[in-house]
Task: inverse folding
């Protein structure tokens, strides 16, 4: 299947700093990418839909100024958690859709804010 | 009521057993159906991707979709301890921009 690469896999940072997570589709072009958040033993919660060349669409309750999404190319979307706080600690996962093949996920990023 | 219902388990089976995982849904607009396997602290891995009703087989995995009953299944034959993971069903409508709607996941444990 298609490969979606997500980096970094783990981040530990101090409260107040910003963290950038990258999501790349390696062997296909993805006009749409999705960012999820997952708490332990829970299913994925969609945060936002990232569209190449346009503004992201955020789900209700997700602060767009807190979670900045940039989808500058057909193979790269980034999520920046600005001024991170301990409550932002979570597992973040990106997904990209390969038309006709389904949606593929990155390996996830575990963010720990101290 | 959630759009997609999935028994959270845990489901514990002995090695070699046939595993049946299921999801029900309420939105008749769903056309594409997927099953993902997720190991702890890893991203979901796509196992099966099907369109509309019918069966699809890939190795030890068989996916079934019954749109008339709004019911989908994933069967795992000859289950192995390495199959122990959380299995998520997901589905979406026909529009390419539709987001996926997930079930809550079923935790499977295959005991040696």
Result:
């Amino acid at each position: 299947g298609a490969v979606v690469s997500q980096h970094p896999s783990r981040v530990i940072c101090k409260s107040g700093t910003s963290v950038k997570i990258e999501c790349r589709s390696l062997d296909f072009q993805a006009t749409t990418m999705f960012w999820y958040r997952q708490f332990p033993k829970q299913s994925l919660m969609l945060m936002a839909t990232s569209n190449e060349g346009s503004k992201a669409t955020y789900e209700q309750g997700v602060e767009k100024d807190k979670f900045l999404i940039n989808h500058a190319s057909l193979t790269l979307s980034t999520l920046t958690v600005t001024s991170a706080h301990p409550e932002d600690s979570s597992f973040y996962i990106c997904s990209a859709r390969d038309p006709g093949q389904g949606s593929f996920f990155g390996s996830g990023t575990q963010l720990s804010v101290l | 009521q959630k759009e997609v219902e999935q028994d959270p388990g845990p489901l514990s089976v002995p090695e070699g057993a046939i595993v049946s995982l299921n999801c029900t849904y309420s939105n008749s607009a769903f056309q594409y159906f997927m099953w993902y396997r997720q190991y702890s602290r890893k991203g979901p891995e796509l196992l099966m991707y099907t369109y509309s009703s019918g069966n699809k087989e890939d190795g030890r995995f068989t996916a079934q979709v019954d749109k008339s009953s709004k019911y989908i299944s994933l069967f795992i034959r000859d289950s192995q301890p390495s199959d122990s993971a959380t299995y998520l069903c997901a589905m979406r409508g026909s529009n390419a921009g539709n987001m996926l709607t997930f079930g809550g996941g079923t935790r499977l444990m295959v005991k040696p």
Q: What stands out?
A: Residues 21 and 79 of chain A are 5 Å apart (CA to CA). Chain A has no helices and eleven strands. The radius of gyration of chain A is 13 Å. The interface with chain B takes residues 1, 4, 6, 32, 34, 42-44, 46, 49, 91, 93, 95, 97, 99, 101-108, 110 of chain A (CB under 8 Å).
